[in-house]
């Protein structure tokens, strides 16, 4: 993907320090940036994913809804495809507002994480998770963590976005900013719901191995296969309640940056698109980011993980019941402030999991964003 002109570059970077809300995103296997811009007022705050029924706009929901982390919908006052149209839209917008961009809108500054403390904390939480798996309270739990580091002085969110587009053709790349959510950049491999009219698609994505150079490893351990099978079974049962003519493909090995995952595609038909929010609410959080049994795992994570996931493992993407919808799970993402980047990553834990392997997996997942800084 090419860089847009300097003026637009600056404008987009400045918008991440403004009270305005926008999302810039690029779908997998396309080279087309798409801008969704809300020109006035606050974004719509939603009570739950179900409140998305009938709505159109760019969605960002947290893993767990709180006053600090609300689900939001960016109203698409302007939608522009390709840099040329994006430039025109942004120039028109910039000339219509009188606003001094400052860092104060994106300055909930965070402390950098101490690497050793982070590892020790992860080990403690891991042992809590593994005990609850060994005593069969849970079949699967997803344990995650975050890590904050200082940004270089000349960091540009748009440059990071473009690098992600160029490095990760298979992923959905997003740069999203609202005053409520802050600024997030992500590169996610996981669709939660996409489609239009009657044709719909979701995936079960789980199990992780590093790429071997340019070779995709395809020999999956039993742990990885079981981990992914739990997700598939959950999605199969959920989709059956909403859709017809379910068709499944997989599991097969799918690349995501320098990692590979096991993936099953689910294609199905929906009679109408009036209840997309209900479907998302039922699907989310899938055992790919939460655990089984779902409700109990969700509460266990909230009470034991030891930090707030914020928008990591929430939903991000474009929703349009009258047109095409492309909603993703917000993975391989980072939250940007003026001076810091906070990375997020997790992994599915089964009773057979070991702490070193799981820690290493979160490092590799965080590298997806680290590599574009
Ligand atoms: C929870 C994450 O990944 C999910 C998606 C693919 C593979 C996963 C795994 O192997 O654990 C996770 O379920 C993450 O990237 O933080």
TrEMBL record:
Gene3D superfamilies: Anthranilate synthase. It catalyses: chorismate = isochorismate. It holds the Pfam family Chorismate_bind. The keyword Lyase does not apply. InterPro entries: ADC_synthase (IPR005801), Chorismate_C (IPR015890), IsoChor_synthase (IPR004561). Belongs to the isochorismate synthase family. This is isochorismate synthase. It comes from Phocaeicola coprocola. The lineage of its organism: Bacteria, Pseudomonadati, Bacteroidota, Bacteroidia, Bacteroidales.
């Amino acid at each position: 993907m090419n860089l847009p002109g300097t003026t637009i570059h600056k404008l987009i970077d400045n918008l991440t320090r403004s009270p305005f809300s926008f999302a810039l995103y690029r779908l997998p296997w396309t080279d087309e940036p798409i801008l969704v811009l809300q020109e006035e007022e606050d974004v719509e705050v939603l009570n739950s994913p179900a409140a998305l029924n009938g709505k159109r706009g760019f969605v960002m929901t947290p893993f767990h809804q709180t006053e600090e982390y609300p689900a939001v919908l960016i109203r698409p006052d302007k939608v522009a495809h390709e840099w040329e149209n994006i430039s025109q839209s942004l120039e028109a917008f910039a000339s219509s507002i009188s606003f001094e961009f400052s860092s104060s809108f994106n300055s909930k500054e965070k402390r950098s994480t101490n690497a050793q403390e982070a590892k020790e904390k992860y080990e403690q939480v891991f042992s809590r998770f593994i005990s609850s798996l060994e005593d069969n309270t849970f079949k699967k739990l997803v344990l995650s963590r975050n890590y904050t580091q200082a940004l270089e002085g000349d960091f540009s969110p748009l440059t990071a976005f473009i690098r992600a587009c160029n490095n990760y053709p298979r992923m959905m790349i997003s740069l999203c900013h609202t005053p409520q959510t802050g600024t997030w950049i992500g590169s996610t491999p996981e669709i939660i719901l996409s489609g239009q009219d009657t044709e719909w698609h979701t995936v079960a994505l789980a199990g992780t191995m590093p790429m071997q150079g340019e070779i995709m490893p395809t020999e999956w351990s039993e742990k990885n296969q079981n981990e992914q099978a739990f997700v598939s079974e959950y999605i199969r049962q959920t989709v059956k309640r909403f859709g017809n003519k379910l068709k499944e493909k997989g599991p097969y090995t799918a690349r995501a940056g320098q990692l590979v995952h096991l993936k099953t595609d689910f294609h199905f038909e929906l009679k109408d698109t009036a209840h997309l929010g209900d479907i998302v609410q039922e699907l989310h959080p899938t055992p790919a980011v939460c655990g089984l049994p779902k409700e109990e795992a969700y509460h266990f994570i909230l009470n034991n993980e030891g930090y707030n996931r914020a928008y990591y493992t929430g939903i991000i993407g474009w929703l349009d019941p009258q047109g095409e919808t492309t909603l993703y799970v917000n993975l391989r993402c980072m939250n940007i402030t003026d001076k810091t980047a906070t990375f997020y990553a997790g992994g599915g834990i089964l009773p057979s999991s070991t702490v070193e392997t799981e820690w290493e997996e979160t490092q590799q997942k965080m590298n997806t964003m680290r590599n574009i800084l």
